[in-house]
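Below is a filled-in request sheet from our internal design queue. Each sheet records the structural input a requester submitted and the sequence that came back. We keep these sheets so that new team members can see what a complete request looks like end to end.

REQUESTER: design group, bay 2
PRIORITY: normal
MODE: inverse folding
CHAIN LENGTH: 178
BACKBONE (tokenized):
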């Protein structure tokens, strides 16, 4: 029976740059709507363009909000570690799937990450990434310093949450004492 020892939650947030990028298209559309009304277009066309701009911006903000505000979790249990997020799905890794673990800072040494899909606002990284050596890294972290878990498959699991010391201690005691 798998016993959960600790659950660590991470909630991402959008950067100001993302909000600006989301707004650019609708702002251009609103500008085109005002330009069309000055050229003599009908009010119906003007209001259709304004409504379209509002719907596009609302849809994009809703999509990004759902993808970033849904919490990601790291669960440390007796003999396993699990991550769960909209970007990675739920993934379980047992002690037998782990070949090593160490603490490192993303961006130092060979630990540069390239996002395949997911979320990366510079601090919080949630998703699937590629390491500098070409391996796949499943990442759920809100810290620059993380617990890097090397899997027997050659891939990596990279996790980090606000109570990092507690998480690492639990991992060492319950999952991988090596």
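RETURNED SEQUENCE:
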């Amino acid at each position: 029976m798998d016993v959960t020892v600790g659950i660590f939650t991470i909630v991402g947030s959008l950067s100001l740059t993302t909000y600006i990028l989301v707004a650019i298209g609708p702002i251009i559309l609103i500008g085109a709507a005002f330009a069309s009304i000055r050229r003599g277009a009908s009010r119906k066309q003007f209001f259709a363009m304004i409504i379209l701009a509002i719907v596009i911006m609302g849809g994009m903000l809703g999509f990004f909000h759902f993808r970033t505000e849904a919490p990601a979790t790291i669960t440390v249990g007796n003999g396993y570690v699990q991550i769960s997020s909209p970007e990675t799905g739920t993934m379980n890794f047992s002690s037998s799937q782990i070949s090593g673990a160490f603490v490192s800072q993303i961006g130092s040494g060979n630990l540069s990450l390239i996002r395949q899909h997911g979320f990366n606002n510079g601090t919080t990284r949630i998703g699937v990434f590629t390491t500098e050596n070409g391996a796949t890294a499943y990442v759920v972290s809100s810290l620059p310093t993380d617990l890097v878990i090397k899997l027997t498959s050659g891939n990596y699991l990279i996790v980090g949450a606000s109570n990092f010391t507690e998480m690492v201690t639990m991992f060492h005691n319950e999952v991988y004492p090596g």
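SHEET NOTES:
- The chain is about 35% helix and 35% strand.
- Residues 105 and 144 are 6 Å apart (CA to CA).
FILED BY: M.R.
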